[in-house]
Amino acid sequence: MTWINLGTYLARTVRVGSTAALLAEVDLSDLVKTTLLLRFAQDYRHSRVGQGLLKQTVAAFPIAIAVAGRGADEAFDDLFREVHLLAGKQIMTTLLNAASVDEIVDGFLFGVLPSEERFDEWKTLSIIVVEDDGRQLKQISSALEKWLDGEEQVGGG
What we know:
Blueprint: E1 4-9, E2 12-18, H1 19-22, E3 34-40, H2 48-59, E4 64-69, H3 72-85, E5 92-96, H4 101-111, E6 124-130, H5 135-145
Parallel strand pairs: 2-6, 3-4, 3-6, 4-5
Antiparallel strand pairs: 1-2
């Protein structure tokens, strides 16, 4: 999967991507060491892409998954059901009901943390904008800038 690496926060890589850019090569195997935000640009209830991606991300065992955006309540219900069906490592889950992109980013950075048993595994913070037209990804990247430790880098990872 191709990501845009923005820098670091708490000495962990911060990266963003969107399904518009990632649909052809969705490989989520590198999510096992990340806290993840799925931001739904289109209504989750009517999004086969969003619903499929949610199931794929749970199967990849990220440290934590937060959902935000249009239809996030329904996405969280599905997320909770999917996580409940798994055995093994714990995945923390969060619903971010925020009005603005800044509030979503702040909620993700300050409120989506690993469980104590998985804290040492935590290496990245990842945000995927689902079905983005490019605007939301830019807004999220801009909202993250004030919190980054490092310089902006564009590229894969």
